[in-house]
């Protein structure tokens, strides 16, 4: 409490609580990864982790937001409430892991710092299709990190309960930011109705539970007490159970009228720790005990027993004809008020005070065991949660977009001999022996360096040179690329006589599609299109990776065109603004072997 900080040691309940959390997380990720690999064997582990960790954290946040209203609607859910901070910290760690993997996947290994890339990647806040949804997730992540960092009891004691409570109410803005992050980000690229349905269902359930709890609380607050002169008639004394309280609203504030040892006292119903409901507590060892965390106050003066210093307002109270009358004007916190004594004539033979039957059980979260009626509901809730985990993981994993058939032979180096072409983009022309057709006499490999960087610096000064190099193949639908390494780049003898055929013109065309970077699309990332990949495509193009236009047009069988300027010059810098959104391009289309090229004359968004 207020006098000193003392950590709460782990107990049996905390070990069980965290063990179930760990089991639920492992179950979710196992089901998500397993179903994903079954549905899409070509999916990459990085993508599975980003999606699995993100969706697990978001689902856990829904559970966290449901616990509070459920505990208000039915007190048997309260065992889930007391260690809710463990859920919050785990959810924050999941979000941090999701953000970390995404930051590395989409923004690392480029020409700027990953955080700078995240903040400056091409986006337009004025349009839905290009809205910088990543920044919404970043804002939510900062809030969650602040909450997780201050979740320890040390910060609760240091900040004081009311300030700590206000700080942790930021979970609701964080939830709103995360919903917008998902809606404007991942769901932009999804055609399946399952993810938006699940997100909408979760939102409705969370809002519905909070609305139901608020309506119930509001209904209790609307009960108007009868005024008797300057006093308020709260209830009959026989309506209060011995050692318990009756809640009422007086002067717009909740009060708690306690009956104990033949006396009646009235205090504010708001605990100074975390605004807990004192009216739902009971008298333990002569003190009002809050049901949330066990904070205690003396009923006659609202002060905590020494050495603690919390104080709550008290109210003057009277008894008339078996009715409890309260002065609606509160006294200063800690003011002593003489309890109203229940008249002796109303006592039955034997001297005991008549009272309503005592409700079974009084549970504070730090008690070693919950009453059985609480435990039954908790076990059922955990079972339902595990079932939801399995269903949601399977539904989200099984309805993901196809990852494409690109190939990236990561870790496998092959040796190639060919002729270097520096401009407009680095390329290796590898002879195909025995082919007489000049247009098909060479295999064309676009060249890139490691990371989100083109190979311009590696091939500088090698135009027309015959070289031997080692690289990793990246290939999709006949368009091939090599990721090469400068240390393995060796000039050899001149190539054999013979030239490369001039490109074949397919005419001037207007095509609609999406501009993206060739390295990711051809196989390094899966998927490699849409708003989710926008930041990565921006880094790749700004680093010199050749841009591609992806279309669904029968005139372009491969569906992919290398984009150049109208005079055949590099175009990656000019197309940065258009990545991650539908565009319409006009220009001459050329065929160079199997490589389709477009000389872009104009670009129109939409």
What is the SS-derived class? alpha+beta
For the residues shown, what is the average pLDDT?
A: 88
**Integer tally of domains:** 3
Instruction: Please tell me how large the radius of gyration is.
Output: 34 Å
Instruction: Note the total helix count.
Output: 13
Shape: elongated
DSSP E strands, number: 24
In percent, how much strand structure appears in the residues? 15-25%
Characterize the largest beta sheet: strand count, sense, and whether it forms a barrel.
5 strands, antiparallel
Helical content band: 25-40%
Contiguous low-pLDDT stretches (5 residues minimum) are: 346-359
Termini Cα gap: 60 Å
Task: Describe the SSE topology.
Blueprint: H1 12-39, H2 45-73, H3 84-107, H4 114-120, H5 133-149, H6 153-159, H7 161-168, H8 171-184, H9 194-221, E1 226-228, E2 231-236, E3 245-250, E4 253-260, E5 263-268, E6 282-284, E7 287-289, E8 296-297, E9 314-315, E10 317-320, E11 323-326, E12 340-341, H10 372-398, E13 407-408, E14 414-421, E15 427-431, E16 442-448, H11 456-459, E17 466-476, E18 479-484, E19 490-491, E20 504-517, H12 518-524, H13 534-542, E21 547-551, E22 560-564, E23 582-592, E24 595-605
Parallel strand pairs: 16-18, 22-24
Antiparallel strand pairs: 1-2, 2-11, 3-4, 4-5, 5-9, 5-12, 6-7, 7-8, 10-11, 13-17, 14-15, 14-17, 15-16, 17-18, 17-19, 20-21, 20-23, 21-22, 23-24
Helix pairs in contact: 1-2, 1-10, 2-3, 2-9, 2-10, 3-4, 3-5, 5-8, 6-7
